[in-house]
Amino acid sequence: MSEPKIQDVARLAGVSPSSISNFLNNRMEQMRPDTQRKIQQAIEQLGYRPNNAARQLKTGVAKMVGLLVPSLANQFFGSLACAVETAAARHQCHVMTFSTFRDPDRERAVMADLLAYGVQGIITGSALNDTDHLAAMTSRCPVVAFDIKRSEDNHERIMTISVDNAAATAMAVEHLVALGHRSIALVSPPPYTLNRQDRLKGFQQAIAQAGIAGELVIADATDTPPSDPHGDTQLFELGRSAAARILAAPGKPTAAIAINDMMAIGIGVGLKQLGLRIPDDFSLIGIDDIFFSAAHDPPLTTLRQPIQAMADAAVQRILAPGAGQVAELFPPELIVRASTAAPK
Amino acid sequence: MSEPKIQDVARLAGVSPSSISNFLNNRMEQMRPDTQRKIQQAIEQLGYRPNNAARQLKTGVAKMVGLLVPSLANQFFGSLACAVETAAARHQCHVMTFSTFRDPDRERAVMADLLAYGVQGIITGSALNDTDHLAAMTSRCPVVAFDIKRSEDNHERIMTISVDNAAATAMAVEHLVALGHRSIALVSPPPYTLNRQDRLKGFQQAIAQAGIAGELVIADATDTPPSDPHGDTQLFELGRSAAARILAAPGKPTAAIAINDMMAIGIGVGLKQLGLRIPDDFSLIGIDDIFFSAAHDPPLTTLRQPIQAMADAAVQRILAPGAGQVAELFPPELIVRASTAAPK
DNA sequence: CTGTTAGCGCCTTCAA
DNA sequence: TTGAAGGCGCTAACAG
């Protein structure tokens, strides 16, 4: 069971441990080809793997970044984790992911764990409203937060990455207007977060610019409890129970923009239960482009967040500090599928 | 930036490093209460965190298990990762998750990485057909594989955990028969894996027992390329393009059991495009109970895999070897939703 | 080009 | 109840 160590390899290869170390760290110019070959062979023969803990203890750095998400059971964050893993791999770096379940205590605890592992930085997709604690982390390691917006409250040292929220809703409005809609609803939970406020702002500006009717429908009550506490089913339920109120809104909207896909899907189901057909009777558009948007019926038109590009940028910020801006907004991409059409 | 170390705490508390160590390892009986208090205070004042690498190097074990999944972007495996994280946390253990993208080379590489981190064991939800390599790992650390079935080919030392596949399809048949269906199709990709063969077997036995018509529809061709290479969209597309063939099957099935939910959802969409309504014109049942099954239209009847229980068992096998069986089958649970009804 | 050496931070006897 | 000391496996000078 006990793993072979660098000494064993050295002995077998008939060279010194430092040559093995050089070999492992790709300093090939420091040895003759045949030494190289012997080392290679010895390593394979023994099935030798360097011990990360020892290496880390010595060098002081772990090739590792930490990732915090609300829950991996939430499809959006599963995709994010996958993208971050891919991005980190480009830098020979591994990712340690923790689910926080949006629990502030747990968030604090796992950040401490991450620090104990010596991660090079922390990426969070689970930023709490209280950014003070996050800001405090920046004195320990670089911190990149997805989807929170810089404000006076949060320290300069938190790097932020977000989709351009105002652009997303504005593009949604433009798409709908181009289709001929003249009255559009924006459906959202209470816009507590700056992100949601940005989406609202983008919506209102685009509505004003197009000179059409815009309705804000706040979805904040649901009759059925969430079936999965961590999967963000709430938004689905919220959307579903908002369907009737959307139709009854003052401007008689013929289309709705949901704050995200999960909610859009819920709205769609609610609308169908009310007897409407999508997109014939009503158009629907989401934000995110989660996996199931394409597999939905009808396939959902949405504004895709460029997750991989955002993940790449996040990892870059951690591993090559100073290489990029502190705050960056990524443009969403309109994915036209079958949930939007001209109004009747 | 440099973290405080045990010496610093000792100095500040006015005690020796070993007392700090005793404190950290909960050997409180070895010191006076006031020493304890002083240490506690010093730790907090410094924001001290023990260095995992040093601890691991010294003790030889990392409180960590490794998890391999095809991709976290696949909702089922995101849920699995979440469940494993929860299970491991009960043992003060962390999880390092890697996506393999079903690439054998990558699978081998990440297993080696996991070993280098000194994980206590490896849980894989991404077992390749070639179990030899997996079996070879068992000499390095305990290995638990989800969803592969023990056979003569794979070594005794791979511990396996799986839902009872035969029971799942059998229960699905029984549910459908109770509803009045007399001709049922099982839709599956080619049943290369033992798991799928078991599902097929359970289906056939249940069909025979009920004395009704059973049809096997192999879905192996799709016209549209997968939209997400790692999200298992293939099964969705496969299901969708199989819809017509299901209806045309010899026995004129009035209901279908899909090999999993993803495929069931695809079949449902395909069927609807053909003008059928579910469950009025046709009943559909899946296996897994992924998140979106409940949020689908109509909500999908399915056989739930008890993921948390399975994850608990997997972690148990790793952390408390000998505590459980080597191979274990978990009973699926029938979740009746709205995609099944009596035939017309 | 290769070997020797001194720790990285912590844990754990062992002695005081 | 506390302190001193050795070493886990590896890396990076530095000396040969």
TrEMBL record, chains A, B:
Gene3D superfamilies registered for this protein in UniProt: 3.40.50.2300, lambda repressor-like DNA-binding domains (1.10.260.40)
HTH lacI-type domain residues: 4-59
Keyword DNA-binding: yes
The keyword Membrane appears for this protein: no
Signal peptide range in chain numbering: none
Keywords recorded for this protein, A-Z: DNA-binding, Transcription, Transcription regulation
CDD domains: HTH_LacI
Pfam families found in the cross-reference section: LacI, Peripla_BP_3
UniProt xrefs under InterPro entries: HTH_LacI, LacI/GalR-like_sensor, Lambda_DNA-bd_dom_sf, Peripla_BP_I
Protein name: LacI family transcriptional regulator
Record organism: Duganella aceris
